[in-house]
Hints:
By secondary structure, this protein is α/β, with parallel strands linked by helices. Helices cover 40% and strands 14% of the residues. The longest helix is centred in the N-terminal third of the chain and has 21 residues. It binds pyridoxal-5'-phosphate (PLP). The site of pyridoxal-5'-phosphate has 13 residues, from helix 4.
Amino acid sequence: MSRIVYADHAATTALSDTALKAMLPYFNQSYGNPSSLYSFAQQAKSDLEAARAQVAACLNAQPEEIYFTSCGSESDNWALRGVAEQKKDKGRHIITSAIEHHAILHTARYLEKQGFEVTYLPVDGQGRVDPAAVKAALRPDTILISIMTANNEIGTIEPIAEIGAIAREAGVLFHTDAVQAVGHIPVDVQAWKVDLLSLSGHKFRGPRGMGALYVRKGVRLPPLMFGGGQEKGRRAGTENVAGAVGLAAALREATDGLAAESARLSALRDKLAAGLGRIPYSRLTGDPVNRLPGTASFVFEGVEGEALLLLLDARGICASSGSACSSASLDPSHVLLAIGLPHAIAHGSLRLTLGAENTEEDVAYLLQEVPRVVQYLREMSPVWDKAAGKPTWEL
Ligand code: PLP
């Protein structure tokens, strides 16, 4: 295989050279434990704090509002379980959406088993949560609203500022899972009126295994991890200085280059969407306008997503069908079902997510190979009428 086209940046990204270079000294040179008193370790401590300040600046937050975690999933778990624990005597109702990542949905299910009630708001055909529905779902015992900033499968960007205003007015805490958004669209915790926000380094060319949770000053959040007094006693464990420095460097780089890179990726994405949209019985999933710059997601009738991925892999194309964590399962994606796609169609999904190293040539290659593979699979499919060139079903 001569060529690799990596079109799965929503799953993970390559570490940027800037982040790698920033991280290297902390593995074997400036390796002091930030909690130690001697000056050798205090250098690591001050570099950790500089990283925190950098992350805060990229979100329009204060440094003391940023807590480093091990990943986006940890941040999501901490936000939901922490607020539930803190507020359980005030109320036990949580509002979220049907299209959240499993880090939110599975935590919500866990909380339901602990006696909390969760409202899973439906979305429209483009994956959009209606702010009016959030407002209507509020109850006197609602303690938390958690709605993702942008969806990882279909790229739809949610009306976060509108939901934030509703939450603030109602005096209810608002968390957003911004794992797919940070580093890709402008993020402003103050303008959005969010109280908690999750992010993950490896989605914007930072290191894997490194995340952060923004917790607005004044919001009380009990720890998820107990032990030492790191992260102001709220998240125990010797700090991952290399990870924090790498995450901050990658975020700074992504934020500085955001306008240009987002314009470049949106143009490539639109070309891809237009080209693959010409395949009969295909459709773009997600909001056609308010979507992440690099995300082009589709369904192709009469095709199995898994088979599509395997044949694309044989041509050097890395893509996914549904979210990375569920691509090993044969269940159709909960996101595609929530936007109203029938099971049969939801099975034929393809998510192409473009990023830093993708070029016009990559898009040309995708536009050449994806239609061929779709055609090949349809010719072998029992649900495809070859003579008529359409699915055997009428939906
Ligand atoms: N939330 C969303 C929207 C995601 O897309 C992901 C990862 O795909 C996560 C949370 C989990 O992030 P991590 O892999 O850092 O745990």
